[in-house]
Design brief:
By secondary structure, the protein is mainly alpha-helical. Helix content is 64%, strand content 0%. The relative contact order is 0.11.
Amino acid sequence: FKKENGPHIKSEDTTSKIMTRLLIALMPIVAFSIFKNTILVYYYTEASVLQAMHPVFMIFIAMLTSFISELLYFKFVLKHNFKSCLNEIYRSFTIIPGLFLALVLPVNTPLWLVAFGAFGANVLGKMLFGGFGQNIFNPALIGYLLISASYPSLMGSQLNLYELDTLAGATPLANLTSLNYFGTYESIVGSFGTLFNFLAGTIPGALGEVSKLLIIISFIYLTITKTIKWRIPVAYISTVFIMTLIIGSVID
């Protein structure tokens, strides 16, 4: 009998192609974040170019720190030579944790804190578990927890400079919390516009979380390209929706 090692089921789809599609799905969200938090801020406020570019610097610093931290880990912890380090970096998709981290952080987070979180995301959340594909936790969320647990008061505001001038200083979630999760449509939604503003993303929030429309489009793209399975996110969101509907109906 001929004996061979697995895997025996092969696909033309590769990890590189999958991660490329993931980056493609994120690009509209990143572009909208820069438009909302940089271009509009510079156009409608008296912010300098450097102040308006802060969200862009956050994304760049997070990805750069991710790259450097893994390069140093491969070099000094795993003792690879420089060429081997570059090969490992290429297969490790190092910028992904940093990019995800930047997208879930408040828009005014200090850059040094972004770098601190990105370092923790890649080293503590990814490399210590064996690297790409071996981590049991989401590295970006490990970085976020590290920041929020270590320096919660320094994480910055969810409102960009334009929103600080036009809103009463609260995000939708903070507003809902202040109302003890009870209120009319006007008190919950009205101060931020309409539900269309919530869908489009013209409300305060972290860099990559506000545009539900673009997130849904990205989800559809990733599902059609078979990058992800639709059942997990649909089951999660449906569970939250049904529980919220039941609780709201009982309270009402």
